[in-house]
Fold this sequence. Notes:
Layout: H1 19-34, H2 39-76, H3 79-127, H4 131-142, H5 151-191, E1 193-198, E2 201-206, H6 208-228, H7 231-254, H8 256-261, H9 265-317, H10 323-340, H11 342-345, H12 347-372, E3 377-381, E4 385-393, E5 399-408, E6 413-417, H13 424-432, E7 438-444, E8 448-451, E9 460-461, H14 462-467, H15 477-486, E10 499-500, H16 502-505, H17 508-522, E11 526-530, H18 538-554, E12 558-562, E13 574-580, E14 589-595
Parallel strand pairs: 3-7, 6-12, 6-13, 8-11, 11-12
Antiparallel strand pairs: 1-2, 4-5, 4-7, 9-10, 13-14
Helix pairs in contact: 1-12, 2-3, 2-5, 2-10, 3-5, 5-10, 5-12, 6-9, 6-10, 7-9, 7-12, 9-10, 15-17, 17-18
Amino acid sequence: MSSSALADSSAAPAPARSFLDTLRRIGRLAAPYFRSDEKWKARALLIAIVALNLGYVYVAVLGNQWYGRFYDALQNKDAAVFWREIGVFGWIAFANIAVQVVKFYLTQLLQVRWRAWMTRSYLSRWLADKTFYHLELARYRTGTGATPDNPDQRIQEDMQLFTDYTVTLSMGLLNAVVTLLSFIGILWALSGVVPVTLGGSTYNVVGSMVWIALVYCIVGTVITHYIGRPLIGLNFRQQRFEADFRHHLVRVREYSEAIALDNGEPVEHRQLDTRFGSVLKNYLQLIKQQKNLVGFTSFFGQAAVIFPFIVAAPRFFSGAIQLGQLMQISSAFGKVQDSLSWFVDNYDRVAVWRATTDRLTSFDDAMRAHAETKIELARTPSAQLQSDDLTVALPDGQVLLADTALAVHPGDTVLLQGPSGSGKSTLFRSFAGIWPFARGHVTVPGNAMFIPQRPYVPDGTLRDALAYPNPTSDYSDEALKQALTDALLPQLASRLDDSDAWSQKLSGGEQQRLAIARVLLKKPMWLFADEATSALDAAAENTLYKRLAASVQSAGGAMVSIAHRAAVAEHHRQRWVLVPQPEGGPARYTLSKESAPASA
């Protein structure tokens, strides 16, 4: 599979996906946990929950039998039986409460363990092999509708919803099926034989209440599906719109200073209003559909309360059955009707479950596609950087460089220059092995560090931010403080254990100096610096470039930099320039190599 496979995973739900396809998707998401290293605990919990559901139904059957004895005692004014049945009710109630409490606890325990395993699994896959980065590139290439949006929401929220609904709905369905099987016989026996006259002929109908309940629930299910069908797509879109709105709020917080300096509040307000408008518009459509569904299901449920009394009343008033049997019929009919109406009662939750499943499977499909993607750039370790056939393209397919030969040897210092947007940073990404739209073969040194244009500074303690991504235990306090001092950040040397949002606390220049401090701390042999000093003054830039060059030279490596400032050239012996080419050629640029000023 080529890198274009990343663009083929659709994020939108299929409008006419079959029920069996939905079940297969649910099974594909659910099965790995029950085959994982936690499978025995997971299966034991599941079996226990199933057993408790069966126990709950058994207690309900005992309760139905109690109804007959208790109400017969009332009708017969039998005080002894009445008080005995009060005591029996206490035991039934105690058993019911105990089963429900234990079932609730084990259900929640299964959900949280499943969610924890699933979250760890998906985080591992998302962060493996640069998947998180490549999925964002695929979104850039194809537009926002073709690849999974907001993976943070899918991992944080959708997995919680999926595990919750999968357990509760599946156990609810199991409970409904077992209840139906348990009570349908009771209702059949209580229904007796009812004579029905049609066209002058009389027919004896056996199990009349069962047939009535069945017809009643089939009609209700069909109407519910017709009313509630739009909820699936609406729930899917609601989750996406909510995530988009939340994502933009986070961006405003992250770029608060830049927005404040640009007086960009009105623009951001409009952007947030637009996103929230989508949230609100879809939600209003959602609650309109839910209103119709709730209206019908409420009518359906209320009618079911009185319906069995209406049907069974003639037999009661004729003396064919006693009060206890009438109450048993009502209870059994309610249980059968509840079981057959499971789909009606849970339609809105099933709609959310299906939408969540679609979102997670599209995310899973995208990560699977990435895992199967063939990276066409072969990288092999070497003591130097070299390629004879490097081709670098953009996500949209435009070729920046074609079959380019280049070489950097230990001791070299190379400055890469070219017009803005010509692909200098993209060439660095290809060297690093994270750019999926490059092909050819390149040998790369192993002990190398890359400084991006905008360094990542994690929240937490300053020592963690400085040592990132290595553990702080790898470095002594003296080494950390010396690196900060050498990077012209002596004022931070005493704050190693301070915890803060450093990306917000430090200025752009301080963040660049912190990234340089990491290099001076870790002393790599090879350094690739992408506009690493663009936010610094000339004096600081000169000092730090001298220290960086001296560090890699003493390690026996080389330095390759991207910079627009002419002063940076003084620290490099070679200069590579990306030269624009006429349209229609094999690539937009060629790589020209020349010597830097002799003063270097």
